[in-house]
Amino acid sequence: MADSWNEVFERNRLVPPPSTAVRLAGEGHLTDSHGFQLSLGRITAAPTPQSQDMTEGERDVTYQLHVNLFDTTQQQFFGKTWKSHPQRKKNNKIPFNEVLYFHTSLRLPSTVVVLELVSLSPRPDGSHHALGQGFTLLELFTNRPEAQAAVGDRRLNLHYGSPRSLLHPLLKDAVDYNSLLVANDGSCLDCAIKKHPALVSMMHLLPENVLLSGDENIPGLAASPTGDALVRPQLLRMTPFTLKGLTISLQPSLEAFESQLHQLVNTDCHNTKQLQPEDALRTVVIQERRLHVGVHNGWCFLDKPQVVVLEPLASGARGRADSSSKQSTLVKDSLTTSNLPQKLGLRSSLELNLTNHRAFAIIFQLEFVFSAPIGQEMTLSATSTSRASFMQCIRWGIWFPFQEPADWKREEVQLFLQGGAKPNPLGVMVYSTQPSAESQLPGPPLASDTAQVSEAKDTITFRLVSSLERKASSPKTSLRREQENLTSQRRSLLSLSRGQKHVPSDSPPGSPQGSGLSLSQLATSSSYPAISHSNPGLPWQQPFSSVLHPSTLASAHQLSHVSSPGVSSIVHLEMDLQQERVVSPAQDEGDQLQELTFTPVHAPVINLGMNMSGSYSVSSRGTLAHLYSAGFPDITDCNGQVADMVDSTEPLAFDLHREETDLLQGNLLIFQFLAFSRIPMPGVGPDWPDNIYITFQFYRFPPVTSQQLKLLTSDKAKKRPGDLLPCILASINRDGVVTSDSPGLQMQFRVDETFLKPGEKRCFLRYLALHTMHIDIWDSDSLLLIGSTAINLKYMLRQGKLAVQSLHEVEVLTTNFMGEDPLLMSTDVGQPSPFSPMTVHTVARGRLHIRTGCIGCPADPRRRRTRDMTPPNSHIIIPQKVPVGFRGGSLSSRSVLQLNAKNTAQAHRQKTDDSYRGLSIRCGIRTDNIVPQEHSLKNSDGRRHKLDCMATMHQLEGKEEAEAAMVTGRIKETRLAKKPHINSIEDDSKAQGISNMLCQAITTEHLIYASLGSAEYMEFVLRNPFNVPQTVTIHSDDPDLSVITDTEEWGYFKELTKTPTPLEENMFQLAEGTPGPRIYLRPKESINIPLKYQSFLCDHTMAPQGPSFLPQGKGSQVSKKSLSNILAAKTIKVTFKSEDNKPMAICQINVEPTPHVVKQTFRLYQPELCFLKKAIRLPPWHDPADTDNRTLVSVRCSDPNIICQTRMQVPGEPQDVYLKVPGCPSPNIKMFFVMVFSDKWMAAPSQIWQIYVHFLERVDVSCVTGQRTCQSLVLRGKQAIRKVKCFSSDPLEIKVDPEGAFVLPPSAVQELQLKVQPWRAGSRFFFVNAVDLEHRRLVTAWLLCLSIHRPVLSKAFEVCMPVDGGHGSSRKITYTNPYNSSRTFLLRSDHPDLLQFRKDKFQVGGGESYTIGLRFASSQSPGSVEILVYVNNLEEKTEETFCVKVNYS
To answer: Which of 607, 782, 1326, 1376 would disulfide-bridge 1344, Cβ 3.0–4.6 Å?
Structure first.
């Protein structure tokens, strides 16, 4: 639960900065606050001579960093001291690795950061003794006039002594501290300071000059899943509220309260002098009553408090009296004739912005403005009327709207006001009536209980309603009311100028939120009563103006109000008395805009066609005959029989229970990529593509990138081009020669009990039954994406058969984005529309022919027995009763060194074994999981490989033993030379060895297999071995491993893992400043501690874009093996420390990562160095356990630098995942994973998406259809010489000069010429790649954004053609050369399939005519089409454009 306001306020009291520094910053126009980030690395301590016997207290010493802000000129600390987490010293190094944030406007060279190293020694009572170990200074700003921040990495030397030495007079105005402070040689602090502009958005939530970490509780700031909420602050949504019906009741009555207050103030001014009636003008009178209202979050006010002027109201009335005579009568007779209380009220309402947080509070401050005479001994001449004004806080109150679940909406809230010397967020002294002061009053004494009642029962009453629930008033009514108020005020001004008595109107103007009250406005006489209670004969209204002067009675806070008139946003009812108001710059900024419910409008990314039944097609008989005659290898079972064929076009019924109980527990899954069918497309040649390569990822195996595959065209297809027979795929080696192996590409994946974790087989079978595998097909020449497809994996379920196979023919699809011509979308004449609606088209680029198969394999009995030995409750970690960490023996230095050498040899041997096994341990994948078919049956090669590895390990072990012997010999020689130093090392090694062995004795190891985003649950059995109760602190050295402290979450994981252990509520104590939760244990008691490991981060390293190459001596079925993006293997220690800070037990968690399952893959393209903002549509699903039919969906991203979020929508509406990805230079590709969770506690992701973002150089081109436009590009060379060729995604419309390959020298600049000649109008996108031909790697990529317009038509024609008109029809058009000389022209058409020219090129003399012959193709269906005919010159510039409308009927 979040902290309350009182906890936040008491914990964050600040020391204000020096007033001189604030003034200097204001004079230097440094009023804007800037955010900074201070990264603290580690402290390297000077080596100190160690004593022979280190005491227990010295071993328990920890170290802290204390950080303060300091002004060197004024020699004053300010702000708040920040303290780091305690850390221990290891090898003379103290790692802190913490990040601080702060913002300040005191960007002066005198503002520095003081960092002090403090040692903490434990005391018997549990407290710590703090002792300074040195300090250093960090300069924030330089001496330049612009006061730029001195950002960058720093290494600061520590100085001896305490930071209190900076207050010494000798250091005042010192320029160089190094000459006056003694440096501690060898001790230094590594840190870095840099600007942090992200703090600008949340500076209103945090005061200046506050040092804090990212995990601090700042109400109003949303928590971050990374733990650092200040890296990219996210604000909670603010809701507008209206405060109305506000009244203040002062006890026993307003008249009595102000009379008592007036007597006390006058007594203070006149030093107990008795006032006479003739001294009326020398008394202090009350001029105004104000109320400050602001929203406070425990740290500071979110905005400047609004200040409104209150009016005295009659008892039981909501408005004031309608004349001053009535008010005078009411005030005079209130003490004698009327016992009804009076109130102060506010006619208008106030607007406040709040958020639903426990620490948000509304602060009320009642302030009186007093007027006092000016002059020596307060005597006035006959012509002097000058008076000084000062303010005094009378009462204050605080209300927490969201701290307790109370239904206050639309209800009247009554709040008690406070007084006296109590800490308050306003930082001012508050008026309080004390008995000692009452006894000195010159008038009749007041009862002491009256003051106590007055302080106890002063109340403020109001109503708070949401502004969103109010109905907006009529604009005409509001305008008429404003005009009436303005007319009334002008009449009042006219009456005052004529010397007439001003009578307040019945309906005073409202109190809108206004600007600060200026000095002249404060000096203006109020039209409301200024009551003085010193004598009944005093006038109720002052007929003189009051000039504002600082008074000796004003506090520092009040003087700040006087000197800074714009501190508060004051609402004053006399502000409109002036005919011409001067609007301050603060008023020009206007009010804060209110956020409306808004959904970002960008089309969500949806996998179009990938999972639709239409993407599958039935192969023709000719296609099947062509494929079976190509000679692809058969898929056979373990007996050599051909696998059963399953029709992939028919629905498949399957039973998962039958798959689980299959006797053949192992499966060999085979993917054979057979052929690719080209589809004729405009813009590319008939032989495109020529070479391809394929990328995909199956289950949680590493991603696969194939080698180059050649598309072989059969002789039959060459003779009959109309027959679209598939092109057989054949592997290509590095030299570009087709291999002689069997055609096609075959990939094998072995899934058996050695690969699957316990209980994972059901998940794998569900993956086959419900998932589709995403496949990307690339052009291996241009490295451009041809398209993507997906195949259903359910046809690989064997259902009790020995082996099955199925043939798939799937469409390779891509998406094209096209917009209309902006000129045609214009609604105004001559004003083109800046927006062009984009249309997403799904285009089929070809068909991929794949054969899949699954062969059942018998399980290994030995491995089955190993698996059967797995304990049933594997989630419960039980420490061993017999300690095995220390096996006995001598603890001499020689034994320790020999033991260390042996451990080193074993570590090297283990490392060699791990490198041999590769992913078999780290990823749970055997080395033969992805193997060629020809190697799967050769056990002799595997045996020989194992024997070679064993020989290598023995050789390495022998070398390690020899090295250990050499190390021992050298140590003997060294000991003879330096025996005293050796003895010291022996003692330290002996103590360290004993400590390590004792820790090993209480350490319990546990192995978990973790995957990205999935939570691994475990329970550690903690036992108290002592006969006294203990409070144990649990500390984990890795944030990914945490203790489950929520009872509901604990019960969820127990039910999920079927753990039969008891559940206990409120078991942990969460205290601030402790390294972890605490738990109370009775003597000899054992209890289960719930632990959870979950990581959302992984390595995003990926292979360069391009096909893989075959290793030497391998067949055509070998795939490229790349490391999977998984979690890093690591060891985590959870320490359970007793009250004396000694470990009671240690749980060592060994994390072995396993790859994750990717549900979908997305590829997005974005201009370089630009943010990608995209929405991905979530598929609809329903959780049967969710009775409200509203699944709670949450998302996480594997990259912390990417913003990933989703918003709850109305039930039934689609839900999107919003991404914001920072840009990279071209041609980088950013890959990351998005995890989608559908359960509350995020136990395991329902889906994992793999997203690739290709960043390209953006080039904007504006052109006209049919006309060539040239654009220059610059290609820069890298470090090595390269052979480069450029490719475009549409070679017919976009050509690159030079067309062929060219040499790009290192660091050279090559100019490329783009020749763009589009044929369709609108907004279109094309790609151009510069490829290294030798290594098949991408050098640079460009994204061409074309804005294509239609040409100006010269003539229009219409032709009628019959449907099925045979061979078509011929027509002719006459063209006259407008030039005086002979010219050559070219003929072009935007529909070459419908219109052909008799001659594409012709020459005509000057002024002569030429007949253009047209040949129209026939159509099989009725309709009409417009064909554009372009007459271009030799430079492809359009001379004339004709439009021919063809009607087929």
So the answer is: 1326
Single-letter residue type at 284: V
- The confidence score (pLDDT) of residue 1080 equals 92
CB 691 within 8 A of CB 708: yes
Location of structure tokens 């502004």: 467
CA distance 311 to 530: 11
8 A C-beta contact, residue 218 and residue 102: no
Token output for 1439: 């001379």
| pTM of the predicted model as reported, rounded to 2 decimal places | 0.55
Residue with tokens 């994948």: 925
Taking the chain, what is the end-to-end CA distance rounded to the nearest angstrom? 76
Rounded distance, CA 673 to CA 691, Å? 14
Please tell me the distance from the alpha carbon of residue 960 to that of residue 990, in angstroms, as a whole number. Answer: 24
Q: Are 1125 and 1154 in contact (CB under 8 A)?
A: no
Residue ranges for the chain with pLDDT beneath 70: 1-2, 29, 48-58, 143-150, 270-282, 314-341, 374-387, 405-410, 433-456, 467-617, 715-723, 818-839, 860-873, 881-988, 1109-1127, 1181-1191, 1208-1212, 1365-1366
Instruction: Collapse the DSSP code of 213 into the 3-class scheme (helix H, G, I; strand E, B; otherwise coil) and give the result.
Output: strand
Return the ∠ at Cα 221 (arms to 220 and 226), rounded to 5°: 160
CA 1185 to chain centroid, in Å, comes to 30
Side chain identity, residue 1222: P
**What would you report as the CA-atom Rg of the chain, rounded to the nearest whole angstrom?**
42
CA 1331/CA 360 separation, integer angstroms: 59
Could you give the CA distance from residue 1022 to residue 879 in angstroms, rounded to a whole number?
8
Q: Cis ω on the peptide bond leading into residue 1298 (within 30° of 0)?
A: yes
* Amino acid in position 1219: L
In angstroms, the CA 468 to CA 595 distance is 11
Distance in angstroms (rounded) separating the CA atoms of residues 855 and 635: 8
Q: Strand pairing of 311-313 and 387-399?
A: unpaired
For CA atoms 1040, 1041, 1047, 1048, the dihedral sign is: positive
Output the CA torsion sign for 763, 766, 768, 772: negative
d(CA 854, CA 637): 9
Rounded distance between C-alpha atoms, residue 139 and residue 150, angstroms: 7
DSSP string, 1246-1273: SEEEEEEEEEEEEEEEEEETTS-EEEEE
Alpha carbon distance 1333, 55 (integer Å): 69
Indicate the pairing of strand 412-416 with strand 239-249: unpaired
| 8 Å CB contact between 975 and 986 | no
82, 99 Cβ separation under 8 angstroms:
no
Residue 153, Cβ density class (10 Å: 0-12 exposed, 13-18 middle, ≥19 buried):
exposed
- The set of residues, in sequence order, having a beta carbon less than 8 Å from that of 703 and lying 6+ positions away, is 695, 696, 697, 1103, 1122, 1124
DSSP strand pairing (361-373 vs 387-399): antiparallel
Decide: helix, strand or coil at residue 56.
Answer: helix
Measure Cα distances from 353 to 302, 362, 467, 1228 in Å: 9, 10, 9, 44
The pLDDT score that the predictor gives to residue 676 is: 94
Strand, coil or helix: 1201: coil
* Residue at 249: amino acid letter: S
3-state secondary structure of 352: strand
Distance CA 629, CA 623 (A): 10
Half-sphere exposure of 545 (CA within 13 A, CB side): 9
| Residues 1057-1075 as b or e (16 or more Cβ within 10 Å = b) | bebeeeeeeebbeeeeeee
Q: Name the helix (H) or strand (E) containing 484.
A: helix 475-497
Q: Which residues contact 622 (CB under 8 A, 6 or more apart)?
A: 723, 725
